[in-house]
């Protein structure tokens, strides 16, 4: 099940010479209920590329979204991405499951938080 989503985050930096991961403002991690080191899927809205990595916290309030390591070939500064995490739950839980979805503006400020995905994507 979809657990968390940061919808339309803007990449603020990409660092090829780094061992991997995506750095995300720790405030945004908390709002979306994404843990440090949690596996995340990144969907690049700008290019259509997709990759899987893990989240690391950036400075709280920095609004930074930093693509690190080899994934820097798949997302560049200025690209718009969706960051999603998933969880396995029992069938009973799945029927009433509500993911944490945080909508972001072009400067990575949260402008909405929805307990369910209104558009399916």
Strand content: 35-45%
- Structural class given helices, strands, pairing? mainly beta
Please list the strands of the largest sheet in the order they lie side by side: 2-6-3-5-4-7-1-8-9
Largest sheet: 9 strands, mixed
Termini gap: 13 Å
Task: Please name the CATH architecture.
Answer: Beta Barrel
- Strand tally, please? 9
Tally of domains: 1
Q: Estimate percent helicity.
A: under 10%
Q: What is the succession of H and E elements? A: EEEHEEEEHEE
Count the DSSP helices.
Answer: 2
CATH topology label = Barwin-like endoglucanases
For the record, the CATH class is: Mainly Beta
The stretches of 5 or more residues where confidence is low (pLDDT under 50) are 117-121
C-alpha-based Rg, rounded = 14 Å
Shape by Cα distribution: globular
Oligomeric state of the chains? single chain
Mean pLDDT, as a whole number?
94
